[in-house]
Amino acid sequence: MKLKKSTIMILVMSWILFLGVCFAAFYQLEQMKEARAANEKIFKDQSTEQISEEPAEYADVRKFMADYYKAIQRDDREKLKTMVEDYQELEKQQDSLEQYIEEYQDLSYRVESVQDSGDYIVYVSYQLKIKGIKTPAPGMTPYYLAKKGDSFLIYNNEDHDTEAVRTAKQESLGRKENKELIEKVNEEYEEALKTDDQLKNFLKDE
Fold this sequence. Notes:
alpha+beta, globular, single chain
């Protein structure tokens, strides 16, 4: 049975879906931040100094995510079961990937910690090479990771998100560097569609 292309659309456009889920709450958070701005201004220079160096544990998060994408591309489902909170959700994605996707290229990982939780949010950017199409599709997927023993666990089903997880995602979306990343990926995506009609036609909603 031929699988629908909707899973591929989600992989390529997931940063836009992430925006849609978070937009309303983000607007409210922006108003709250403006109210706090005057009180926080005095500490601005000092705070910038404190966060200029990346925490050492970010390297462990990046390695975990690199291993996750290796397992995806090898279709190593036994390993993937240990890496995600909802394996059934991931299995649907894997079935579609096997049919349509040749490989993920140029993977990069932006990591940030979730305050007072020990959790992380990772923005993974990539070029998605679709079988039979010359031009890769630029994409980006945000992940929420929780610490699990000596490793991590990806929360890959938004229906299972707690209020704390939703709030963390919303606050992350409001950060300047993440807005800039989303804008960059969106521009690259639009440019790719302009240069390759075959890619554009493939990604049209069915």
